[in-house]
Design a protein that fits this description.
The chain is an alpha+beta fold. It has two domains: 31 residues; 162 residues, Beta Barrel (Cathepsin D, subunit A, domain 1), CATH 2.40.70. Helices cover 19% and strands 43% of the residues. A six-stranded mixed barrel has the order 2-3-11-4-10-9. It starts with a helix and ends with a helix. About 13% of the residues have low confidence.
């Protein structure tokens, strides 16, 4: 009788790790999402879809923003900034809309500021804000530093902080690997929505 009980206990000890491992592999949160070095992201507040470069060389994510202005609200530091739709005409969903005068405006609390050292140029102070966005069909929240990225190929950059916090794997040899899409508005829809 004792031997039988001991066998049952031993079976439970040997079985438990296997069951836990199987459950871990079935848990979607434990399996890292594999994405390409460029993917679509959608800013949750607006439905604007942007191309984002996933960059393991950058710690903090970055977002294209112009007219970045700090202000005080309820004794806290906030920042207002704009995203001109005309800066995103590389997308195929503008449908001939006139985007030149359409600007999305944001006001968000400042999480912190960072000082960026630039080669051959003065250091730059950037405001960092928390923003929700969708990538690969899933909503995430991360910190973005705000800067004019109009000279860069991609208006958004996602850094290591986002990747490590949200269990993301990057395939640096390919782009647009996501199997799931995020709901978004076309540039033409956004333009129509912002016409007075």
């Amino acid at each position: 009788m004792l031997t039988r009980a001991m066998k049952c206990i031993a079976a439970v000890f040997f079985l438990s790790p296997a069951v836990l491992l199987a459950n871990a592999h079935n848990d979607e949160n434990s399996v890292p999402e594999k994405l390409g070095f460029v993917e679509w992201v959608v800013l949750e507040e607006t439905g604007l879809r942007l191309k984002a470069r996933l960059d393991t060389g950058a710690k903090t994510s970055s977002l294209h923003a112009v007219n970045v202005e700090p202000f005080e609200k309820d004794d806290e530091e906030w920042v207002s900034f704009q995203l001109p739709l005309a800066d995103h005409q590389d997308q195929d969903d503008a449908d001939g809309a006139n985007l030149e005068e359409v600007i999305l405006e944001f006001s968000l609390p400042v999480e912190r500021t960072v000082k960026i050292k630039r080669k051959g140029a003065p250091s730059q102070r950037r405001f960092v804000v928390n923003m929700e966005f969708c990538i690969a069909g899933t909503t995430h929240k991360t910190e973005f530093s705000l800067t004019d990225r109009s000279k860069f190929s991609y208006p958004a950059l996602l850094g290591r902080r986002f990747m490590s916090d949200d269990n993301i794997l990057i395939d640096s040899s390919d782009a647009f690997l996501s199997q799931k899409e995020c709901e978004h508005k076309s540039l033409a829809e956004l333009a129509d929505q912002h016409v007075d």
